[in-house]
Amino acid sequence: MIVNASGRTDIPAFYAEWLMQRVEAGWFYSRNPRYPSQVLRYELDPRYVDVLMMCSKNWGPMLPYLPRLRQRYRLVVHATITAYGTDLEPMVPPMDEACEYLLELSSLLGSRCVVWRYDPLVLTERYTPREQLATFDHLAARLAGKVSLCIFSFIEMYSKVMRNFPNARAPSALEREQLASGLAQIAGKRGLILQSCGTEQDFSHLGIRASGCASAQRLGEAAGCVLKNNGRKGGERRGCRCMDWRDMGAYDTCPHGCRYCYANNNHSLAKKRWQTHDPSSPMLCDQLRPGDQVRQGRMPSLLLPRQGSLLKL
Fold first, then answer.
1. Computed from CA positions of residues 270, 41, 158, 244, in that sequence, does the dihedral angle turn out positive or negative?
2. Distance, C-alpha 22 to centroid of its chain
3. Whether the Cβ atoms of residue 28 and residue 248 lie closer than 8 Å to each other
4. What's the pLDDT tens digit per position in 51-96?
5. pTM score above 0.90
6. Please, which pLDDT band fits residue 33 given cuts at 50, 70 and 90?
7. What is the DSSP string of 268-302?
8. DSSP string, 91-126
């Protein structure tokens, strides 16, 4: 199975200790966000985890633990570094600090395992297309040679986003084309492979890979293995081509406070849950409740039969 830590919150930045306690315990609980009384148990034994994915905007707290995780799992890590300041990302490290963390990730794990995310692309009076492209060029120059792939996306105006960030707007189709063209030119100049995320708009004529941050091909390339496709992940954006995964996180638990956040309905609640979470709990920012139905989750192996052991990677 593919385990994601996490698509619902930033575990490396805020819950590194919790994650490592679950790794040592060898299992975790995950509450179904659609059916809250349903709790699934998943094993974290390397025999069941084909790939461990992690994504963060602040890798500093997680860096000391990565050598231990690397010994246990095939790792694929995403580092998000964007153009924004504290007006949009109140608790995200400054751009240069985030770059240093990414460079350390590349040194520890190798550039193949590390993905730079430049997403989502948000347009405001301050963050214009020209500003976005200038920042992307600055970052690409710093990260060239240490990361081979950059994934970008355009903001999705979900109801929670419009409520929390009323002065944001999604780029038009023409603006998307122009931004994608500019990104592609910069990426080509810096020797980066560029891939879109979560969009049905085709940019292949610009040399940009189609969406699929966690497709069988993309994860296999990064983790050094061959995976079979287990179907599209349900509930994601229409342009998403990622495989199904098991998520360790929970919504409304990320205190970064990003104005465009897809995972938080209430930033104050997310901050409170982080401040009061129990690192020894088997479920992130949560405990079993009366009436919960706990069952073992499905953990199908996606490695093709010819794959060898972890020791051969």
1. positive
2. 19
3. yes
4. 999 999 999 999 999 999 999 999 999 999 999 999 999 999 999 9
5. yes
6. very high
7. HHHHHHHHT--TT-SBTTB---TT-EEEEPP----
8. TSPPHHHHHHHHHHHHHHH-GGGEEEEEEEE-B-SS
